[in-house]
Amino acid sequence: MKTMTCRQLGGPCEHQHHGATADDVIKAQDRHLKDAAKAGDTVHLPAHEEMKGRWRHPKRSLGWYRDTKAAFAALPEG
Ligand SMILES: [Zn+2]
């Protein structure tokens, strides 16, 4: 298991996501942003909009996914 924070994934807070793969933490961050938006959390709105943009434009977002996966791969285990 590795840990990435909301901030490491482009968000504004230090909420931690744990996962075995980069996709796990990316999915957890998507959920976190959705929950924050639903709760009326304006601090997370820009990151939430970016996340929705990534779903709409997956090709344009490949760089973000590649960078995030590389950052995840570089993290220590544990
Ligand atoms: Zn957050």
Automatic annotation (TrEMBL):
Protein name per its UniProtKB record: DUF1059 domain-containing protein
Native species: Pedococcus ginsenosidimutans
